[in-house]
Amino acid sequence: MKPQFKIKRFNELSLQELYKAMQLRSEVFVVEQNCVYQDIDGKDEKALHVLGMFNDELVAYCRLFNTGDYFDNPSIGRVVVSQKYRDRKWGHDLMATAIAAIHQHYNISCITISAQLYLKKFYESHGFVQEGEQYLEDDIPHIRMHRQ
């Protein structure tokens, strides 16, 4: 079985969905990666939120931005899969859903991301190509990548 994906605007999220998304993001990006940073950045209201649900649990999540909201192209960010489900490769399902949603909602094929360097091969498997040199974002090595 795989997660069921829902795509919602910020104002369509239930309080429980929003809470679960913030909880998963904090669990991975702050606690697991031992990185103190401001995850709640004021951009969630602009984003489309992709929620991967499995047995009423949020197991995968990312947010999508239209042209100009984050980069010059539409973008995907806060890509996360719960640690206990990573062995199921659901990150690939999440990315396929996110890419399709950008095409459907924004009608644009070019996508830009700011990727953690260690995930370069994962993003390359989804058609992304590195653009420029690596940089630090919240003390974690990142690279900018794009997909045509």
Fold and architecture overview:
A 4-stranded antiparallel sheet has the order 1-2-3-4, sandwiched between helices. A 3-stranded antiparallel sheet has the order 5-7-6. The protein is of the alpha+beta class and 148 residues long. The protein is globular, with a radius of gyration of 14 Å. Helices cover 27% and strands 35% of the residues. A hairpin with a 2-residue loop joins strand 6 and strand 7.
Mean pLDDT: 94
- What are the low-pLDDT stretches, counting only 5+ consecutive residues below 50? none
How many E strands?
A: 7
Class based on secondary structure composition and strand pairing: alpha+beta
Order of helices and strands: EHEEEHEHEE
Tally of individual helices: 3
Distance from N terminus to C terminus (CA atoms, Å) equals: 30 Å
Residues in β-strands, percent: 35-45%
Major sheet description: 4 strands, antiparallel
Principal-axes geometry comes out as globular
Spatially, the strands of the biggest sheet line up as 1-2-3-4
